[in-house]
């Protein structure tokens, strides 16, 4: 599989809430870095923690891959992904008000020579995320 196909397969598993399937796509020593949350570490630990929290808090959590760009060495991909969900439980310190979000993300993904993800970095507008879930009182 090309790096673009690997990224698309990862997000397909994400849509299915298949955390074990997502993690199976990572190399043994893979790391993630979710920059706006300052969450980084081994994919098996940090990834499982954040994905479980999001899927528990947003049972309808989904994503749409809008574009994926690959480099010539077939090891790096940049994905534009819109992630959506409706909050059903308190999550990430945010009390549930039943609000929804739809937020563009950028993921930079690096593959190892065996076609496994060795590093994933994610960016999004965290202020917009919190604003969508905690609307101002009127």
TrEMBL record:
Taxonomy, superkingdom: Bacteria
Residue span, SnoaL-like domain: 7-117
Protein name in the entry: Nuclear transport factor 2 family protein
Coiled coil: none
Pfam families in UniProt: SnoaL_2
InterPro entries: NTF2-like_dom_sf (IPR032710), SnoaL-like (IPR037401)
């Amino acid at each position: 599989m090309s790096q673009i196909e690997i990224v698309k397969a990862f997000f397909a598993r994400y849509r299915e809430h298949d955390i074990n399937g997502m993690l199976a796509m990572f190399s043994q020593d893979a790391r993630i870095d979710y920059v706006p949350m300052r969450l980084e570490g081994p994919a098996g630990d940090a990834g499982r923690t954040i994905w479980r929290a999001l899927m528990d808090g947003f049972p309808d959590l989904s994503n749409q891959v809008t574009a994926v760009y690959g480099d010539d060495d077939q090891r790096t991909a940049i994905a534009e992904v819109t992630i959506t969900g409706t909050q059903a439980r308190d999550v990430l310190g945010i009390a549930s008000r039943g609000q929804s979000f739809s937020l563009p993300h950028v993921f930079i993904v690096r593959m190892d020579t065996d076609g496994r993800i060795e590093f994933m970095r994610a960016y999004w507008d965290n202020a917009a995320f919190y604003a969508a879930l905690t609307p101002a009182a009127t």
